[in-house]
Amino acid sequence: MNQEICVYILTHNRPDVILRSLNSVREQDYCNLKIIVSDNSDNDETTELLKDITRKDRRVCYEKRGIECSSSNAHFNYILKTNSFEYFMLFHDDDEMLPSMVSTLYEYLFTHKNLCAVACNAYFNVRGKNTKKKAFISQNIDTFENGEEIIKRYAVGRIAPFPSFMYRKSKVFGISMDWNKGGKYCDCSFIVTIANSGGVAYLPQCCMYYFISPNQDSQHHEFVQYLSLIKYLATLVEDKGLLLNMRLYNIYNYLRDLQLKTKRIPYRKEVLFLFYKYSFTNFFPKYILRLLNLYMR
After folding, report:
1. Would you state the pLDDT for residue 215?
2. What is the DSSP string of 227-265?
3. What is the spatial distance between Cα 42 and Cα 21, in angstroms, rounded to a whole number?
4. Which pick of 10, 76, 219, 230 has the fewest CB atoms within 10 Å?
5. What is the distance between the alpha carbons of residues 256 and 250, in angstroms, rounded to a whole number?
6. Tell me: the pLDDT tens digits for 139-171?
7. Do 169 and 81 sit in the same domain of this protein?
8. Is the Cβ–Cβ distance between 101 and 29 less than 8 Å?
């Protein structure tokens, strides 16, 4: 049964990229599709840009948002609260779907009635160039029946990109994204919450391009906000080693950002000892290479 699916494209002041994302959704091979461009821009550039498309393609609807969607977090929660479609997605305005993304996700979610959401793998587009680098490496469908399993996956960086999720309204209605549970990383606590409500699946197929650029907010680490995520996750798991790895990740990425901003990384004996003792094969060698200016990622 091909139920109507809605893809919300959330956009803010990016008329230069929205057409690529929108056209990739319009080219999906799933026939019963509704597309809503949800725009919380502070200007009318996107409004003017999409006039012809909304007139010619009846599947596309444009919604200009007001104060109720003033932040990205509020925008997301507004869609969650007002959405009327049983199957829906919240897609980013700078990412790109491959033609079978919607049908692939829908087929799996529709046939697994217990799941709250399903996500797929993604190729990275780095600085405007498509690559074959994947968000995570897996040959199997991974199903997570509770939030702790998601946290374990998140702690080692093997996560599905947030815009790759398709949700089932009847399972996620009433759940919101809480800024106090991770700041800009609260998408993780959100997925953890919905996993506890019925389960989440990750498909190994790459069905989209996830765009990475230096100007993206996601590419800049926020130490305090990530720390708030760790504090929240610590209430859900008892694995101290897992939480320690996340704390080391937080420190490492804070130092990485300092290097990128100042072109030098501060040397601290305490940090060196911490990485050496608890993460000899991971953060320790990277930190040493940064001190030598040989590692910039």
Report:
1. 66
2. HHHHHHHTTT---HHHHHHHHHHHHHHHHHHHHHHHSS-
3. 20
4. 219
5. 10
6. 999 999 998 899 988 887 788 999 999 999 999
7. yes
8. no
d(CA 175, CA 190): 8
32: in domain: yes
Q: How many domains does the chain have?
A: 2
Q: What is the C-alpha separation between 114 and 144, in angstroms, rounded? A: 11
The pLDDT value given to residue 52: 93
| Domain extent for 115 | 5-212
Last residue of a domain, one of 177, 212, 247: 212
The CB-based long-range contact list for 286-289 (8 Å cut-off, 24+ gap) reads 286/252, 287/252, 287/255
> Are 251 and 208 within one domain?
no
pLDDT at 252: 87
Q: Which residues of the chain have pLDDT under 70?
A: 1, 214-219, 294-297
Q: What are the backbone angles phi and psi of residue 115, rounded to the nearest 5°?
A: -80, 145
- Please state the pTM of the whole predicted model: 0.89
Contact 7, 25 (CB under 8 A): yes
| CATH at 67 | 3.90.550.10
